[in-house]
């Protein structure tokens, strides 16, 4: 379980307005993206946030960046795979368990797809030379 408000992260700002936010946690030589949100999509905000996370992983000596998303989030699955992330694990029905802790997770997500499964993606990070 994570408490994102207490985690380190990165902001994208333009003229004093927040356009995006990423939070992360580091353990076992991996940097986990815990939350990533672009408030205005399709303008490079998400890419800038992922680039910052990858740079931070290198700086901290992490060998990979990982994250978990859900089966309905086709936009995120596309976004990450276009940015060098590979599918690493599928946990069918894991969201059922997550809902016991967080009942506000909706039953149906993007594109009308029932939210049922967790999907992990990871990107290996070359060490800083
Ligand atoms: C996933 C998410 C973070 C991506 O953020 P984003 O800011 O829309 O991402 P980007 O703008 O960097 O990239 C998205 C596309 O827009 C395009 N794009 C980037 N800059 C652009 C610009 N200036 N003008 C037009 N298009 C642009 C990119 O080319 C990219 O397409 P590609 O994948 O074919 O390369 C965003 O969709 C989001 O906040 N989703 C909701 C929260 C969420 O699902 N988070 C992930 C949970 S794990």
CATH class: Alpha Beta
Per the CATH scheme, the topology name is Aminopeptidase
Distance between the termini: 34 Å
The overall pLDDT average reads 94
What report would you give on this structure?
The chain has 129 residues and is an alpha+beta fold. The chain has 3 helices and 6 strands, in the order βββαβαβαβ. The protein has a 6-stranded mixed β-sheet with strand order 1-2-3-4-6-5, covered by helices on one side. The chain is globular. Bound molecules: coenzyme A. Coenzyme A (COA) is lined by residues 36-38, 41-47, 67, 69, 73, 75-76, 79, 82.
Question: Keyphrases for this structure?
Answer:
single chain; 129 residues; alpha+beta; Aminopeptidase; six-stranded mixed β-sheet; globular; binds coenzyme A
Précis, in short:
By secondary structure, the protein is α+β, with helices and mostly antiparallel strands.
Task: Record the SSE blueprint.
Elements: E1 9-14, E2 17-27, E3 30-38, H1 45-59, E4 64-70, H2 74-81, E5 86-91, H3 94-101, E6 118-124
Parallel strand pairs: 3-4
Antiparallel strand pairs: 1-2, 2-3, 4-6, 5-6
The structure holds coenzyme A (COA).
Coenzyme A binds next to strand 3, helix 1, strand 4 and helix 2.
């Amino acid at each position: 379980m994570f408490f994102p408000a207490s985690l380190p992260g990165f902001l994208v700002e333009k003229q004093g307005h927040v356009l995006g936010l990423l939070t992360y946690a580091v353990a076992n030589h991996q940097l986990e993206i815990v939350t990533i949100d672009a408030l205005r999509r399709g303008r490079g905000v998400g890419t800038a946030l992922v680039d910052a996370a990858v740079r931070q992983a290198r700086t901290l000596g992490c060998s990979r960046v990982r994250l978990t998303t859900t089966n309905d989030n086709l936009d995120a699955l596309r976004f990450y795979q276009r940015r060098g992330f590979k599918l690493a694990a599928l946990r069918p029905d894991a969201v059922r368990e997550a809902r016991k802790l967080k009942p506000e997770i909706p039953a149906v997500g993007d594109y009308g797809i029932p939210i049922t499964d967790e999907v992990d993606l990871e990107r290996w990070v070359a060490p800083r030379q």
